[in-house]
Amino acid sequence: MDTGTPGIFRDTPELFDPVIPGKTYMREYEKFMLEKFDLLGATGKANDINI
Q1: Is pLDDT above 70 for 17?
Q2: Cα–Cα distance measured from residue 20 to residue 8, given in angstroms and rounded to the nearest whole number
Q3: Tally of helices (H runs) and strands (E runs) in the chain
Q4: Residues 6+ apart with CB under 8 A from 4
């Protein structure tokens, strides 16, 4: 029965550390967001925002 546990915990229980898959997620999320910023023409525009 699959309990929805990420494979890394199932396959290597000695490495039970939620931070490990979180690091991979954050790297992939950063790449995803940078692609979206490029697509929208927003890359490098943060300094142009006046609040």
Answers
A1: yes
A2: 9
A3: 2, 0
A4: none
